[in-house]
Structure formats: C-alpha cells, structure tokens
C-alpha cells in the first residue's frame, strides 16, 4: 500500500463525470492511433483554431516583449482590470453607444477562466440554468463550486441545475415558461455547440425573464464576430440588460489566441446583488485575489487586434473559417442529413436520428479517421447529434468532407 495523507478529497469534484469532454476525445483519438498507426487523422473535434495569427498582431507582441528587456520599456504587475488603452479599445470596438464604460471591462486570460472566477463570486448557494446543449465548462464549474446535487444517470443531468432544452423544434431557444426560477442563467450566443444565434426578440424575452425572476444572465459572446445577419452581437443591445446581465468574451476564436490567452468580461455598474452591492466590486475583489491580470505581452497583442489593420486581419481569418463551415454544411446537406449551425458560428451541428452520439463519433473515427465531437457531451439534448468544427486547414477540411461522402454516400 502506498502512503496516503489524511486529507479527504473535495466531495464536489468526486461528483464530476468521467473525464472533461475534450480530454476524453483525445484519449479515444490516441487509442485509435495505436490501432491505426499510419492513419492520417484529421481533427474537427475540439474547437481549437489552426490558422496562424496575423503578423500585424504578432509583431506588436514581439515589440512589447523586446521592450521588456529595456529600462524604459520594462513593466511589472499591471492593473488587475487590464491596461486602460485596451479597455478603451474594447469599449469603442464592441460596445459603442451601449452605455458601457472602460471601468466596466475586466481584461483576463480568457473567457473560460472568467467563467470559473464568476462561479467563485456567486458561491455555492445559487441555482444555475444552462442551455442544453452547451459548453461543458458551465456545468462542470457549477459542480466543482458545490451548487449541484449528484449526477442522475437515468436523465444524464446533475440535480439542482435547470437544463433549458434547445432543440431544432424550438429554434434552439428555450421555452422560458417551463423553467423554474434560476439565480444565474448561462447563455451562449452564437451557441457552442449548436451554432444558433439568438434573435433580438429572443434576447428581449430572456432579459425580461431575468427581470421577472431577479436572475443574473452570464452572456457568453465568444463567437459574436461570426454573426453575419443582424442578430445582436452583445446582450447590452437589449434595453434593460445592464441591470440583469454581464458578458464574457474572448480573442481566442477571432485572432487565434487559444494559446496566447486573452479575453474580457463586462460587468455594468447597474448590475446589483439583492442587498444592492455591485457585482463588479465583488468580481474585482476575486480578480485581485486570484489573478494578477492578463500578460502584458498578450494585452499588446489585443490592442493590435483592435487597430484598423488588426480588425481587418481578424475578419479575414473569421471569413476563412466561415468558408470552411460552408464546405462542411454543403457536404452533409448533399448526403441528406439535417444540418444546423454553420451560418453564425464555426460549428456545424449534424443530426443522426435515433443514434447514440458516441456511437456516431466512434463510427466516423474508425472509418474515416476524422475526429468530431459527440453531441451528448454538451448535455442530454445533444444526444443524436455530432458537432463538426470548421477550425482546420482548408485541405484537411476538404479531405475530411471527401471521407464523409465515402462513408455516408
């Protein structure tokens, strides 16, 4: 027997299911490689960007990093909320005329990290609502914080989380009248994994629902720049949202910053807890305690992203991924599948009626050597779907689509 300490394990972490979705996919991919060592695997699974960061952005980061080796250019700890020029640029680029100020912006090392910091702010005595299906980090961070009961295998849900079903038949927008009152509503638009972007009318309903219930919306807008129609890109375009919502966002899927790490969260001064205390002040305290601000090098990159040349470069990269989505959508369309998403997001949501998502994932991996993501990994309403990511080099996307056509022709 090996030596054990007398420290008991955090019981909330023991409630988590198997592995986090993406490490589990990586595990299965590696097992597949052992079985087929010569297979040319194409990964359209995890939503990781593949195209190089535009040079206008990397050159600004290089310049900043070289400056750090000079007396004039060196800087140590920065402001916890982020450098003021970057916060101002975020406001003027994404929140112009929406009544958001520089000091409502908290610059961070990415939206995923902010989601967990927000959970620390909310604590363990709140009830969560999430879109079903949705990005797994919302549910898993809720479980770790102790906001939930145990996992109920029969319904594939954690107790004490409100799963808001988003299916094709309701336009991927939940029936809010059927939901019991939540404290915190996680809402992602355009949604990962379904790719659905909420309309102005739908978001107006959501804000009204939060007002009626005194709830707080955590609005994840990580894919807002992928919206091509006139759907709102920010929750703050909806009147009254500043009293019930905060918004988290990221440079990851715009500028290829998945490894650079830079995002931001907007918390308006009007957003108050039940005792009248501003949510932003508590978030500031958590940020000051648990975080020392985003890297000064990545912030220099963020500032370059928001320059006129940087914005054009980001739009070009997004345009490239959107062409990939068109190719994937056309492929599954031509094979007779019901296909959703792809228009306002880099994800294509393909329906395999009556089949298990993990079985379809396995079949595609086994027979085409392409990695996708099983829909059920995003929640019970994702069963029967797979998510195909459009992040990939063009030749890989074309080759994957050729293989899909061979398998399902």
Automatic annotation (TrEMBL):
Domain Aminotransferase class I/classII large, first and last residues per copy: 40-404
Coiled-coil segments on the chain, per record: none
Keywords: Aminotransferase, Pyridoxal phosphate, Transferase
Biological process according to GO: systemic acquired resistance, salicylic acid mediated signaling pathway
Cofactor dependency: pyridoxal 5'-phosphate
GO molecular function, one term: transaminase activity
InterPro entries: Aminotransferase_I/II_large, DapL/ALD1, PyrdxlP-dep_Trfase, PyrdxlP-dep_Trfase_major, PyrdxlP-dep_Trfase_small
Family note: Belongs to the class-I pyridoxal-phosphate-dependent aminotransferase family. LL-diaminopimelate aminotransferase subfamily.
Entries under PANTHER family matching the protein: AMINOTRANSFERASE
Cited HAMAP family: DapL_aminotrans_1
Name of protein: Putative LL-diaminopimelate aminotransferase
Organism field: Lupinus albus (White lupine)
